[in-house]
Amino acid sequence: MSFAEIIIDHKSTSVDRRFTYHIPDQLLDDAKVGVRVVVPFGRYNKPTMGIIVEKTENLKAQFKTKDILRILDDKPLISEKKLELAKWIKEEYLCTGFESMQPILPPGDFRDIYTIVEAREDFIGFDILSENGKRILYHLLEVGKMEYSQLRNLYNDSGFNKEISLLEKSGAVRLNLQVRMKTTTRVEKHIVPNSDISYLKGMEIVGKGAKKQLKIWEFINKTKETQVKKLLLEFNTSLSVLKAMEKKNLVRLEDRVVYERPIPNEIPSYKRIELNSEQRVVFDGIVNSQNNLSLIHGITGSGKTEIYLQLVEEMLQRGKNSIILVPEISLTPQTTDRFVGRFGNQVAILHSKLTQHERFDQWRRIKSGEYNIVIGARSALFAPFNNLGLIVIDEEHENTYKSSNNPKYSTVEVAKKIVELEGARLVLGTATPSVETYYKAKYGEFQLYELRNRATRNSLPSIRIVDMRNELQEGNRSIFSRDLYNEMEKTLKDRNQLILFLNRRGYTGFITCRSCGYVAKCNNCDISLTYHRSTNRLRCHYCGETHAVPTSCPSCGSSYFKSFGIGTERVEEETRKLFPNARVSRMDSDNIKTRDDYEIALESMKKKEIDILIGTQMISKGLDFPSVTLVGIIAADTTLNLPDFRAPERTFQLITQVAGRAGRGEVEGNVILQTYNPEHYSITAAMDNNYKEFFRSELDLRREFGYPPYKEIATVTLFGRNNQKVMDSIEKSSSALIDLVRESGLMDIEVLGPNPAPLEKINNNYRWQILLKFGYNHSKDIRDIIRRVYTIDKGNLIEDEVKTSIDINPNSIL
Ligand code: ADP
Ligand code: ZN
Ligand code: ZN
């Protein structure tokens, strides 16, 4: 007797379990792992769709099993290896079975997918078909095409799939996955000039007083139809101006449906570059190595991307597929352009902005072999290739590679598992490896490769440190040191471009009272509010709530209630004041909200329409502008003082990445770094471009305080609207956990807390936390204990309204 383990509904988390069904004999051949089936479910045997995730023989169960009713797929929707991966994810990250399935399931609802079988008109080889095959084909020729499961119903005998797959192989039929889905469309406002009104007549209607409107009228008479967004950006104006013009009947504002194209059309081809000897060593090493895990530690601009490109090419020659991961698809257009420019329509780009339908379509096409290369953010890791050869993770150290939703997986760890299952290779690349990864490379788990020179033969920019304490002492109260100011002036005079970087958005940091120390905080989130000059309001960056600015201290009434610290808006304002003739542009998540915004800004940077670009992390990655010769880091301290054990690492990475934006062209680059902590090893090591020096100091600290890579960290956060219930639950559950740890006799495990989480309240949820630190040799035991307390025994320990979040090696413990 054969049985199948089936999952029923991946959306429901209340029934996180599999169900066992008997496989009737006539379905035995076709009931493969990964296909969807219809089974009788529940007390009333309602026909319900599920997926077979495992098959078992000779079940010893005491209960009577029901029969599978129908099979819906000719081929598995999900490969056996992916199902194995999901199982591993569930164990590793302590999520539910359904959550572990999410990444490997097709986008959307798997119940909406169906297969169409279509007869091919051009088929002529009837002689080679079996009798059954002919019967099916004649029927299909009559009706044209039919849904697979309906067709199957007509010929409900064993071996149906064999017939279908023979028909497909011999070219008699074509099979296509489709999805039932309401398509959602995105619209965008466009502005269209009224063609009945001549240019001159229009000028007259606008009138001489309205300068902006005159300019806009002139502009759209040339361009005709234009994106409203583009126009607003171009003229730095608001929608009300356009509305006013609409009232005068000069223009119409119209909605246009936007079709997000997976691949933009106009990407120029990117020619193959002969690898230099340093790159060649790395390439040969990776291709020939026994170890299928590699780390390329290569300075910015050393030509890592060209190595990736040629590895992909090598894979294509071997008939294998590649997955390229980038930290964030919209922030790395230059990398995606190179892949598309080299491999054209073999590349699928998985944007996060795709609609459900488009996403499913990409999934389907990857699965059916239409693409050989996928490029995307971390979720592209799960692309359903049948013959995977290579996974590349570019900028391996970036924190976007840790998922913050369930399953809270680490991309590098999951990728390791995938290449193990699929027999593929994993290549990590970065100028600033994460301490954990570099440690693994040092100890042989990853093969380590180094690139020490820039591929274009120009040298790395030199980094100069300015001690801001001295500036203040010597009477300079500006946010620019004298050094930075002079260099900016010089750069502008030479007609080069420069970037100012600050790791914080908003006009200022937080607002504080200089008399009593009161800090304005968000009531919902307990987070310092940030002052935004453009709206003249305080905003919480967590929940988005805004407040009016008090004129005096709400606590003591003092009027010494001032902003503290600086933000990108303030940098912009000061810059404009000091360099009134420079063309200044700011890029941060306040004013760059869509991919279009981003691309428009990049385009004007490329065309040298911007002299000074001011930005946050957004501009630290992957950008390559040859005429940027100066980078100013306004305050390295903003990162250094984050409440997180990774703060020094993040600081080193940021400085290195940002500095890497300078001096990419003919002219040598300069970096000026302002700080109040000039002796900190993250800063001195970054200045010397000495990763190893940084690594040594950092590793000492990690060892001393018991952080990764020496100890593994896990947090359990409970949250809910009733603080008392959350506190009771964390109290009860953590003491149960501590008891289990004690019983297990395992040493070397620390349980910290329960404490209020660093963010005590988010969106009116109170949050309490325990933090566990343990040696890697206890990985499995600790996971068992956490699972025991927070899933199996949950009913007795945790109140109903209280929710649990478990994070293994969290990005931050906020
Ligand atoms: P990384 O990804 O390591 O930061 P890139 O791949 O962006 O570096 O390469 C930096 C520049 O060097 C690019 O403009 C690239 O075209 C160029 N480049 C790469 N390899 C070579 C080579 N072998 N010879 C000449 N130029 C190269
Ligand atoms: Zn006060
Ligand atoms: Zn808030």
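^ zinc ion complex. The first strand starts at residue 2 and ends at 7. DSSP finds 26 helices and 33 strands in the chain.
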